[in-house]
Amino acid sequence: MVPLYRRSGVRLVLSGHEHNFQHSRVDGIDYFVTGGGGKVRGDSPRDFEKAFTVGWAVAVHFLLVKISGRRATVTPIGEDGRPLAVKAPDGSPASATTTIEK
Questions:
Q1: Measured on CA atoms in the order 13, 18, 22, 24, is the torsion positive or negative?
Q2: How many helices (H) and strands (E) does the chain have?
Q3: Cα separations (Å) of 56 from 1, 6, 39, 77, 79?
Q4: Which residue stretches of the chain are H helix?
Q5: Of the four, 1, 30, 91, 102, which is 20 to 30 A from 14 by CA?
């Protein structure tokens, strides 16, 4: 799928399955994996460098995606209704909200 994304100018890919939140950025494409809607896996993701991970969190969440013209804003929202506490691969705090412009 990635060659098709690149050829088509895709900037944002949303997917599920993992039982946590992951945000990666590769070649100008932001990938969000969301899967903490009901069950979370307690361990952290692995292979951050290989996955080009920007941020991650192990918590129940959903993604709030706002589209305005050529701008998309993606924010993972936790159980408390506030932006999720996202970590960088080194464990330091990372921005929860990502803005993508085309």
A1: negative
A2: 2, 9
A3: 23, 24, 16, 13, 16
A4: 2-8, 48-51
A5: 91
Residue pair 41/24 in contact (Cβ under 8 Å)? The answer is: no
Provide CB contacts within 8 A for 76, sequence distance 6+: 21, 34, 57, 61, 62, 63, 64, 83, 84, 86, 96
pTM, two decimals, is 0.89
Q: What is the largest CA-CA distance in the chain?
A: 39
pLDDT class of 102 with cuts at 50, 70, 90? confident
What rounded mean pLDDT belongs to the chain?
90
pLDDT for 37-67, tens place per residue?
Answer: 666 666 677 788 888 999 999 888 999 999 9
Residue keyed to tokens 């969440």: 61
> Is residue 72 helix, strand or coil?
strand
